[in-house]
Known about the structure:
Blueprint: E1 13-16, H1 18-22, E2 30-33, H2 35-42, H3 47-63, E3 69-70, E4 74-78, H4 87-98, E5 119-120, E6 129-133, E7 139-144, H5 155-163, H6 169-189, E8 197-201
Parallel strand pairs: 1-3, 4-5
Antiparallel strand pairs: 1-2, 4-6, 6-7, 7-8
Amino acid sequence: xxxxxxxxxxxxxxxxxxxxxxxxxxxxxxxxxxxxxxxxxxxxxxxxxxxxxxxxxxxxxxxxxxxxxxxxxxxxxxxxxxxxxxxxxxxxxxxxxxxxxxxxxxxxxxxxxxxxxxxxxxxxxxxxxxxxxxxxxxxxxxxxxxxxxxxxxxxxxxxxxxxxxxxxxxxxxxxxxxxxxxxxxxxxxxxxxxxxxxxxxx
Length: 202
């Protein structure tokens, strides 16, 4: 898979998955997710996928400051309905990294490793997503505010042409490059901006 090189510069997210360790799928149960994994899960790269990746990374950093987060041991709640806007896209990326699912995940072995009933929507929370550790009850609410990371002025016109089937090959290529440039800015230049990815402890 060929992709923009800046994807490789994005920080990775390391988690400990006891199920992966139990089944011998990953040495010591350590799994390292990259932005490329998020792109493969979503099938594309955009500000939404970037925000989902960063919100998850920041939430897990806050909940597990001394080491890797435990995959399958975090409850996730979304303020929006699963069919609203891009909530479903974000949920897929969050589920990939945390292991949390609603009712379609792994059922467990001998009462352990159940990944169901960990993902919820329409939650009464003060933010986009709430992450809660099952072992300690520690929780954070995370939101993204990426409106100020502006796209190139020409991108709107190019988008119209591409959607309408009127863009030349050169214009279509330029649109893709400009689209990914905004994603690059979000992931690399603004990833630590406290006003872009907002984390609030409960």
